Amino acid sequence: MKMQSLHRQKGAEVVEFAITSALLFLILFGIIEFSVALFDKATLTNAGREGARTGILFRPAPRDIVAEDAAINQAIDDYAASYLISLGGPAAMTTNIQRTDLSANGVFDAGDQITVTITYPYQFLILPKFLGTLGGALNLSSTIVMRAE
Prior knowledge:
Keywords: Membrane, Transmembrane, Transmembrane helix. The chain has four helices and three strands, in the order H-H-H-E-E-H-E.
């Protein structure tokens, strides 16, 4: 009798392992996926800081806002290209630069504020098909405000 019950349980461990390992790997890869998303969020924040630092530097009059915006965007793109994890190629970020004239003199000078906002649609890397059903891309954004020197 005991031989028969042992014979019927042969292979049960393999089935139990298959069921539990699928759940275990799903949790493991989910943790990795959201860790990469959190790292990219921190990278966007740091890229925004680099861009804002470039924008608040003192420049003598007359100021060329178009050239300054290009320099800010270049600083952001350089930082993001170095640190952002996007296996699908270059990051498709949108950047918004806004200057606030706190001194109300019509010129962006010392004491005024610059606001740099970066938005990045994070595409899931490891589990794109499974997590894609939750809405596709995860929009990460960062807003940095700094006072001009």
